[in-house]
Design brief:
This protein is mostly helical. 81% of the residues lie in helices and 0% in strands. The chain has 13 helices and no strands. α3 runs antiparallel to α4 and α12 packs across α13.
């Protein structure tokens, strides 16, 4: 098995998939901790559907998907995470945006089906990430590296401020922190991670990539720093393992990664139960 894995690493598409997968998983884990603690985990699902709708428009007009999906998803993310004064907000706003984007995206693909040669294949790839991560070009990997580096830099530079906004936004505002600025930073970062994640696990499975590592880490660690570090390690491990398993056994990449994260989550629950029983 080890020899087989080593032989696969000789291929560029495997190396590209691993690099992109590990970086995206790392960013998703860092972001996931903040979103889960803010009880905004469903935003990932809603924004992934927005990205799907934007990508269908890009496919119809033969434009690079990143050029359309990134600005559209950033705008949607800002509206969702900074929509305190909006009449439609919270779960309602996420539901409306999610369902509308998904429906309009699929409708446009069907209406303009002559623009694409493989409608069902394109939809499956975007929704479940079945092939896109294994067909990355060097330019795609470079873009992924740049955006991932930007996301990690944001979390490193503004760690304390994001920590304060995540746990108690009202107190942070009272102490003079410009919460609107850091909410905007978090919104833009969320959009970037969502757009990157579509290539890895697909639009329908992004929430798992964001939520599972954070939930796993919270079962074992109690400190914010410990949870962030553990979530990053778990996410990177599951992404790498999922990609290798999918290549060896010819299973869908996105689904395999999510299955690995689910298995780790179950293990973490068992560990947490054992620790709880030992303390008693």
């Amino acid at each position: 098995m080890l020899e087989k894995l080593v032989s696969y690493l000789q291929y560029d598409f495997v190396r590209y998939a691993l690099i992109a997968g590990v970086l995206i998983a790392l960013c998703a884990a860092l972001l996931g901790v903040s979103l889960v603690l803010r009880r905004c985990s469903l935003i990932g699902d809603g924004l992934s559907h927005v990205a799907f709708g934007a990508m269908t428009v890009a496919m119809i007009f033969s434009v690079a998907p990143m050029y359309v999906s990134l600005p559209v998803t950033v705008l949607a993310s800002v509206l969702l995470l900074r929509g305190d004064r909006a009449k439609l907000r919270g779960d309602s706003a996420v539901a409306v945006l999610s369902v509308s984007s998904l429906a309009i995206g699929y409708l446009l693909l069907n209406v303009f089906s002559k623009k694409t040669t493989n409608l069902s294949g394109d939809v499956c790839s975007i929704l479940f990430g079945s092939t896109s991560i294994l067909t990355l070009k060097l330019s795609d990997v470079i873009t992924c590296v740049v955006l991932a580096a930007a996301v990690v830099t944001v979390f490193a530079l503004f760690y304390n401020k994001l920590f304060a906004v995540t746990f108690d936004e009202t107190f942070a505002r009272a102490t003079g922190t410009k919460t609107s600025v850091y909410n905007l930073i978090l919104a833009v970062t969320t959009a970037v991670v969502i757009v990157l994640s579509v290539n890895l696990v697909g639009a329908l499975l992004i929430s798992a990539l964001i939520v599972f590592p954070a939930l796993c880490a919270m079962r074992i660690f109690k400190s914010y720093r410990g949870v962030m570090a553990a979530a990053a390690v778990i996410s990177v491990f599951c992404a790498a393992l999922g990609i290798f398993v999918s290549i060896i056994f010819s299973t869908p990449v996105g689904s395999t990664i999510v299955a690995c994260e689910l298995a780790v989550f179950v293990i973490c629950i068992i560990i947490d139960l054992i620790k709880g029983g030992t303390k008693k």
